[in-house]
Design goal:
By secondary structure, the protein is an alpha+beta fold. Helices cover 28% and strands 33% of the residues. Strands 4-5-8-9-15-14-13-12 form an 8-stranded antiparallel β-sheet. Strand 8 and strand 9 form a beta hairpin. Helix 2 packs across helix 9 and helix 7 crosses helix 8. The two termini are 12 Å apart.
Length: 330
């Protein structure tokens, strides 16, 4: 499907739909007090943003189904949740020169499958064939947007292990002395596999939006772990106080939920509904940038899943337009 056909599919929404959506967003409001900055470039792409979030997730809050019969458990993204992160804790981690690699045995993951660079394709049909996925396109493109480019990123896989001693030392450095790293986590293999993802770019004179879709990433890790306990460790590393971390860790389904840390100083987040599925909308107060370096309006990132496909829609649209565009996918 070329740009002209996509543009021809544009339809103005029913007036009552826009009014209802405005009212729904107003009633929902922020899910928390202002969440600090969503980095404007926080992957307005699934391959980028979710890869970062998954890397954090895998060594701090693994979300898998425990099975006494299986050696490996499997995690698939179905839901999204956000947690506010205190910028002071981020500065503390930077001061300690801590990054994901510092907590991995050997310092780096083993690449099992290299996705290679994104590959430009000429049509939705070609993208669908390359990704093995029925790629969906928006029926409504607000703010004068028109289709620009389509790229496909190949499948990838990495394997790594958490250094349990280093993670425990990190907890002590952060004065988290009431939690212990489970013995079943340290040194045991964790594998992250991503399916091919398709990125569609839409542009207008002063707007830039990207839609990324792909099958849910898979995370395999050792069975028998207390998911809530490991989730609590990750939340404490992120700076939540003991009571809040425990309540949050016990309240979500770690089997299917991807937790995104959102710094507190420049963003907020709320839950929305897309095609009857619960999604997460993160708003950045900082201007979003684009490839030519120009600054645009505040960025927004909308994440949701349908079946085994995960969607990420990001750019500098208003919230109502963002949700309407997501609702129009066909």
């Amino acid at each position: 499907m070329d740009e002209r056909k996509l543009h021809a599919m544009r339809r103005e929404p029913r007036p009552e739909f826009a009014r209802e959506l405005h009212e729904r967003l107003r009633r929902q409001g922020p899910a928390v007090a202002p969440a600090r900055a969503l980095t404007p470039r926080l992957g307005w792409s699934l391959a980028g943003g979710l890869a970062v979030a998954l890397a954090v997730l895998c060594f701090t809050v693994p979300a898998v189904r425990v099975s006494a019969q299986a050696f490996l458990d499997l995690f698939r993204v179905r839901n999204f949740a956000a947690v506010s992160v205190d910028p002071a804790r981020l500065e503390q981690l930077r001061a300690q020169k801590l990054d994901p690699g510092s907590l991995l045995a050997g310092g780096r993951p083993e690449v099992l499958e290299e996705p290679g660079p994104p590959r430009a394709v000429g049509s939705i049909a070609e993208a669908s064939a390359a990704a093995g996925l029925a790629v969906r396109v928006p029926g409504r493109m607000p703010a004068g947007l028109t289709a620009d480019t389509i790229t496909v990123l190949g499948a990838g896989a990495v394997r790594f292990a958490v250094d349990g001693a280093r993670l425990q030392a990190l907890l002590e450095t952060l004065e988290v002395r009431d939690l212990t790293v489970p013995a079943g986590l340290g040194g045991r293999p964790i594998t992250v596999r991503t399916s091919p993802t398709v990125r569609q770019s839409f542009v207008a004179e002063r707007r830039h939006v990207e839609l990324v879709q792909g099958r849910s990433p898979e995370v395999e890790l050792p069975a028998g772990l207390d998911l809530a306990q490991i989730g609590e460790i990750g939340l404490r590393v992120a700076g939540l106080d003991p009571g809040e971390a425990r309540r949050f860790a016990r309240s979500i389904d770690w089997h299917t939920t991807l937790v995104m840390p959102v710094p507190l100083d420049a963003a907020s987040f709320t839950e929305v509904t897309v095609h009857g599925q619960r999604g997460l909308l993160v708003r950045s107060a900082a201007p979003a940038g684009d490839r030519d370096g120009r600054r645009r309006g505040p960025g927004r990132l909308l994440l949701w899943s349908e079946g085994d496909v995960v969607f990420a829609l990001g750019g500098d649209l208003e919230e109502v337009d963002m949700v309407e565009m997501a609702e129009s996918l066909r």
